[in-house]
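Journal club prep — side note

Before the paper discussion, L.F. wants everyone to see what a predicted structure for a comparable chain looks like in token form. Sequence:
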Amino acid sequence: MLFEDVVSIKQHNLKKLITAIRFNDQLTKKDLSNLTSLSIATITNLCNELIGKGVLSEGDYSAEVRIGRTPNLMKFHYDRFYVLALDFQFNNAVGLAVLNLRNEICYSNSVRISSNATVEEIVALAHEKLREAIAEKGIEKQIIGVGASVPAVYDSNDGLIKCSSIARYQNVPLKRIIAETFGCPAYVDNCANLRAISAYAQSPSSNIVCLDVSQGVGCGVILDGEILHGKNGYAAEIAHIPIGDPSLRCPTCGAYGCVETDLNVEHIVRHFPQIDPSLPLPEKWRECVRLLSENTEQAAPLLNHWGRLLGQVASILINLFDPSDFYVTGYITDIFPLLADAFWQEVRSRSADSLKLNLNLHIPECLWSDVYIGISDAMYHRWLP
């Protein structure tokens, strides 16, 4: 066996052990051996190494009162290691967060960015704000990496952002810029993939599809426990499926009828000219939701169209990937009750067999923390102590 193979096996076992204990401190070495199928001797050696690195400690952490000798429990110091998260989903703001290795958010904020700011300037601003936050918490030397969410495709071949719904990020080497600015490992993925990873982290299911509709329309797919990226990162890229309004020209690809052009929330907002276009998207969207909720009869044709379109996309994905759990996420969930009748009519008529086979369909509240959790979990799985 090559030396590299031995190292790889050891690293695999280290991560296997940490993952087993990540969310459970009430485990002995015997418990870990049973969970990982590794021998007690191997577990002991790995634990000793991780104790030496400050990743684990051993002691009587149990709250239970026991008679006789109590076996020591292993404790994972998840709060000694942190992930920084950047959310580039909006044109005029960037979201920031700090999470520990249990995906708990220790800090979150957002900062406004000018319309003419370069990507380098935006990343530098994010670095400055996060550096201030982590300095306050005293965790600067414990950062394992920085992850970023984009409303686009990250092309793993050339490291560039492609098919971006925000023009400033198109063809930009965002991962390299982040890594050089922060001086640590970087990870970039699209919003839909990260929401799928977040859903899997919070409620593991072997097959998940996440339809994410906000500033863009994206899809994240987890099959047999693995996120689907494809050869170049374009897997499940559904934004340009031609089932939208054929009169609408897509600003990204130039074609007509792309579902993203018809269904993204910026387009929905533009149906209300009374909304100030200079406002940040979250504020415009809140006002749009209010107007739609107060004028459901007048907006019924639009709501029916958007609900049917959302249902058609969901049906395509359900039939393609046969998931056990299907999520609709993003800003669109704020108006889902208004779209529900048309949505369900399409889904039930086009994917009836899947629904009969106990598909779990989730329409969770739109929480941007899900994107941060997805980033944190993705960075954790790339980390080796």
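L.F.'s comment for the group: The chain has three domains: 3-76, 80-195+370-382, 203-365. Keep this in mind when we get to the figures.
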